[in-house]
Write a structure and sequence with these properties.
The protein is mostly helical. It has 1 helix and no strands. The radius of gyration is 32 Å and the shape is elongated. The N and C termini lie far apart (72 Å).
């Protein structure tokens, strides 16, 4: 009789655990990720505003160097580590 009772409670707890893992846990993860995404999107908007103001304040000027040499075309590449 005790063995049957133990098996019954084991099956009940196992079923509840499976239900918790398959239904409740994904809902919790989904809600948490949505909240994080909203927070990140809000931060992205403020970052873009700051980036636009800093871009207009200082525009870098790139000058093209015309280095014509009669020796031919030699390109010196930098080593990337």
């Amino acid at each position: 009789m005790i063995l049957i009772r133990i098996l019954f409670w084991f099956i009940v707890f196992y079923s509840l655990f499976k239900l918790l893992i398959r239904v409740v846990l994904p809902l919790l993860i989904k809600n948490t990720l949505q909240a994080k995404m909203k927070g990140m999107q809000g931060n992205r908007g403020t970052f873009e505003d700051k980036e636009q103001t800093s871009e207009t304040a200082s525009q870098p000027s790139f000058k093209k160097e015309n280095n014509t040499s009669s020796k031919g075309d030699y390109i010196d590449f930098e080593e990337v580590k």
